[in-house]
Structure formats: structure tokens, C-alpha cells
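Um, can you check?
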Amino acid sequence: MMDLISVPDIVETLRVAIGSGATEVANSAVKSAFDAIKQKITDLLGPDNPPNKALESLEQNPESNGYKMVLEEELKKHEISDKEDIQTLIKELIAAMQQTQTGKEQLAKFLNHDETNIGVQGDNITVNVSGDYNVKKT
């Protein structure tokens, strides 16, 4: 079974792709991968489907947290992220983006899921953590 890319990571990948020129002809590999994702969603759900409408809104305003949230909701509601074809296409988009310096830098901000061990010692410690984590008390 393939490792699934989470819905938030899919949405952020699409947002970064938009920002790095996926909707422009300039970067044809990224544009082709991005367009293939949109087409696959259309193939699965038909024309004028809610996830593609949400993606089009994000294309118009890629910095909008509201549009990102709507796209996440639509992808979850229609179970798009669970489809093997979508996962494969997202991985192809990521690979295409990693061929550019900007894409590589932007992807590293949120796709860096390497394990990090942090030692903390003392009383009354507050640690802010985002994402999945495990705490081991020694």
C-alpha cells in the first residue's frame, strides 16, 4: 500500500504549485501535472464539481486561507485524496516542483516529515507542537 499524502499537504502542494506558475505555460512540467490533477477530479466527479470549483477559487487567490479550507473540505467530502490515481498525480506534481529551486524551497516548508528528536529537561515546560507527535517520558 502506498503512503498517502494528507489532504492538508495536497492542498498546500496545489497552492504552492499555483504560486510557482502551474497555471502559466512557463513551467510546463508543473503545469502538466497540475492540469492532470484537475482533469482526474473532473473524470471522477464530472464537470463543474465542487473540488474543482474550490481549486479555481484558490487559483484566483492562492494566499487565501479561506479558499484553502474550502478546498480541504471538498476533497475530504468527496474522498478525492483516498484515490490512488490522485495520490500518484500529486506525487508527480511534487516531483516536477522539486526540479525548480523555488518549488523545492516551498515544498520543504511543509512536506518535511522527517523524524526529529528533541530532548527537554526540567519542570513546568511548555512545548508547542503542530502535526503528529509522540511523547516518550523517560
Q: What stands out?
A: The chain has six helices and no strands. Helices lie at 7-19, 28-45, 50-60, 65-77, 84-97, 101-108.
